[in-house]
Amino acid sequence: MDYAIALAGDGWPVRAAFVAAALVLAVLVYDAVMLLARRSRHLRPAVDIVRQPGRVLALGLVLLASLAVMDLPAAVSETLRRGLTIGIIGAAGFAIARFVGLSFDRAILPYATRSDSVSRARRTQLDFFRRATLTGIAGLTVALCLTTIPAVRAMGLSLFASAGVAGIVIGLAAQPTISNFIAGIQIAMTQPIRIGDVVVVENEWGRIEEISSTYVVVAIWDERRLILPLAYFLQKPFQNWTRESSQLLQPVFLYVDYALPVAALRAQLDRILDRSPLWDRRVSNLQVTDLGENAMQLRALVSAADASKAWDLRCLVREELVTWIRETYPQALPRTRMEAVLKRPAARQAA
User: Fold this and answer.
1) Any idea what DSSP says for residue 174?
2) DSSP tag of 84
3) In the sheet where 296-304 sits, what is the strand order?
4) Residue among 279, 326, 287, 333 at smallest CA distance from 306
């Protein structure tokens, strides 16, 4: 320290050379430490993502310490100190955020390619808490940067002193955000929906594509995206087709004439399902479910492993059955019957 104070009394070239030497030494030491850390296979990913913000952090600390020997005007020194402090806080927050993000990504990776319910549940929880943690780190970093500005710090202290009124105003303004955040925590823990779940919401069939800290993205079957707040899934009813299992039963309704032999149609249904890879071989059934004046209603019940296969199988069975009826029993297609009754004229009856 005495040597640094002695240098402070020298001219600008000496002080500038001292600062430059300190910066070069800091970079060399930092890079040497990073190279040593990269030799570890487990530490290498973490070192790679924090290396750049860490270098900025190290240089900022050296420059902040060097202000003591720069002999700058008070106003300039204070401005530089404040700017360097903000840069150091920002670099530290960025490095922490990248490290936390990497940790969550490595935890999510084993479940990313699995489609079973347990894997999707773990992925949903980790993805939500990853977003919430990164949002918290970003908010804390910005708040710490703002506290370095005297005017902002004074305003914060005044708001804290009047916490009663300010708390009510801020609470009312942030009510939707707070309610969605709390709903996100509830969804992550209770999991009425998970990433990859097939749902029917707002009369739209889709798949849960993303669960953020405030909203849910539902990928609709026609490639549209439905954006809903998290609180929606705790306040309104919806259908979750994969809550316990992805297996589904699908009905196929047909309206045919009474002349159709149901047993023959049932046998044809079995043949259609036997040669279709979409059927999971759990359920195959054909029943007469209703009778009308002109036709009877038949319901073919089939099963599939997931919603996409169930839809394709349903369309296939409907098409194949209609084709078979048209080609084999064309007279069994729905028809309207009319009966004509001839009556004699009244005069001829009297004769």
Assistant:
1) T
2) H
3) 248-256, 296-304, 279-291
4) 279
Read off the tokens for 181: 């955040």
The position carrying tokens 């800091």 is: 26
Rounded distance between C-alpha atoms, residue 211 and residue 181, angstroms: 11
Domain boundaries, the chain: 8-148, 197-240, 248-329
pLDDT at residue 84 is higher than 80: yes
Taking CA atoms, 349 is separated from 18, 340, 342, 343, 345, in Å, by 134, 19, 13, 10, 6
The answer to whether 258 and 282 have CB atoms below 8 angstroms apart is no
Longest dimension (CA), the chain: 148
Question: In terms of Cα–Cα distance, which of 318, 320, 317 is closest to 328?
Answer: 320
Average pLDDT, integer, range 245-251 = 88
Q: Which CATH number fits domain 248-329: 3.30.70.100, 3.40.50.1000, 3.10.450.50, 3.40.50.720?
A: 3.30.70.100
Give, in order, the Cα–Cα distances in Å from 187 to each of 134, 144, 190, 341.
Answer: 18, 30, 5, 69
pLDDT digits (tens, 9 = 90+) for 194-221: 888 899 999 999 999 988 878 899 999 8
- Which residue in the block uniquely carries the two structure tokens 């709390």? 182
Cα–Cα nearest to 147, from 156, 138, 159: 156
Distance of CA 2 to the CA centre of its chain: 58
